[in-house]
Amino acid sequence: MKRRLGEYSDGDLYAMLHGDDREEAFRELYARFSPNVFAYCMRVLGSQDRAYDIYQETFMRFFQSAERHPQLDNVRAYVLTICRNLCLNEKKRSAQTAALEFDDTLYNPGEGREAERSEMMGLITMAMELLPHDMKEAFVLREYDGLSYNEISDMLQIKLETAKVRVFRARQKIKEILEPYLNEMHK
Amino acid sequence: MDPNHSDLIQMLLDGEMDSMYDGRLFGELSTNGDLRSELKQQLAIRNEVSHDRMALIPPASLTGAVFSGLGFTAPMAGAAAGAAGGFVATWLARIGVPIAAAVLTTGAMNYAGTLDATMRDTEGATISRNNENATLAPNASTRNTDAAQEDALHGNVRRSDASRDADTRDAWTRDARTRGTDMQRSDASRDEQTHDARTHDADMPRSDASHDTESQMLARDESMTPRNSEPIVSQLMVSNSIDLQRQEEPKTLQSMQLQNTRAAWDEYPAFTLQARGFSLKPMTETAVDPQTQWYQNLGVAMIYKLSDHHSVGVEFGSEVFPQVFDGTRPNGQIVKYEQQPSSMWAAAVYRYSFDGIGETSFRPMLQGSFGGTKYGPIGRAMLGMSYSPVGPLSFILGIEGATMAYQYQQNWFTSSKIGLTYGMAVRF
Fold this sequence. Notes:
The structure holds 2 protein chains of 2 kinds.
Chain A: H1 10-16, H2 22-45, H3 48-65, H4 75-96, H5 104-107, H6 115-130, H7 133-144, H8 149-156, H9 160-185
Helix pairs in contact in A: 1-2, 2-3, 2-4, 2-7, 3-4, 4-8, 6-9, 7-9, 8-9
Chain B: H1 5-14, H2 19-31, H3 33-55, H4 60-69, H5 76-83, H6 87-160, H7 162-173, H8 176-203, H9 206-211, H10 214-220, H11 225-228, H12 230-260, H13 264-267, E1 271-282, E2 298-305, E3 310-320, E4 323-328, E5 334-339, E6 342-353, E7 362-373, E8 377-390, E9 393-408, E10 411-427
Antiparallel strand pairs in B: 1-2, 1-10, 2-3, 3-6, 4-5, 6-7, 7-8, 8-9, 9-10
């Protein structure tokens, strides 16, 4: 009896990208990883337009890469690595044309949230924008994409302890930026 | 290296707290207010990030772009939204469920109507067959009677004229027109025989002819058959009169047929199940996007008909009401809040239905309802029209206004909306 696609592992589905069922396999992989990639693009790049472009490009390249790599162990880390490299390129490009971009999505994240929560999220997003890129990246991979420290260290090609330190410092920095606001909230 | 307080909090957040540090951390938390505050802040940030992560879902248009870029068929929502930039998807989300409900109910009603029509057809067919039998029966009986009478009357003719007998038999076994033609031929033959008989009479002795009546002559002389042929014409006339009666019979049967077609929903139309959608414009402006749910802006009601004009019921629905309100923080700072949460509501409904417009199936109606949401009470009023095209099915279109009240920091605020409502209902 044919198994449902949801029962296949990421690696099995990736291998299926070569076969006749590639569309169904890609659909399932897309369903699994699209939230991770989208969150990474949105929060690391901080611009909706650029994030959308990179997001789309990531999945195009991911699908095309299946021809070159028949097997993969950690598909999620692989697709996030593609996304990361594209984001780094994009940041380099945008650094050359430094422009201040106002993005509504930074101040109106999510939908239907309570007003206070939106306000706080806006502050967190702004605080993240103030973080150095390596810290922000580690923080997003840990908090948004749910990667373990080992996965982060593998993906970023850094030591495990360095990954932990980056996430730790990012948290501390965000807390410091938000401290006045948080203190008011908890008074 | 011995971890400090912040390290311990990080370990706790990451779920990597070593059991040897558990007691130390919780001991510190019980005495150190700053540490408690730091943990609280970190948890608040983490909680907020978690909510943000849940809300970060790629829009359908972007998904559609990815799939179309690879030459694949986009997933349902993505395709619809990608094709129309999200506009179609938004409206599909609003009216999709009412349409789906309408299609399903129409299908069910169509099926019920088909059954009803089939039953009517069956009855009609039976009645038609009965009519046909009833129609044919007189003919048959007439034909049989006529044939018998013809045989009786023409017994002598047959004996005297074999060819005429054959013509007569053929005439009664064909249709009326053929029969008429044959009868003309028979009449012609009969005339000839009458002439022969008269000639024969003329040949009889004059003494007998002057004393005997014509009937006596018939009794005495079997060969005087031409006079016996006269009743054939009268029998045909009787046959025609039976045909006229036959035309009246179906009218009686048709009136009975109308009595049999009353459906169950005409007899017991007390309950109505209604599904409707709302397309209401908020009267409160806000820049915050509304919370979206697939069942948003929908209402389902069960209404009981008390009389021809009055109905009561309950209605459940889900709707977004923009909320813009002020609040004061403990330090005295005034904060303006804006949100558009989706909320379920339930309400008691009263409906007054006016008389139908003329002979049409349109009935104006007024409806008011009062209930509650998780934020506060809600009231609705609707002026609309119902249209019942067939059977128990009806459609609703109306203008509706709704107001929800909510409370924040002991102050009451309201949010109102006005617009159109549309839907369908099934009586049962």
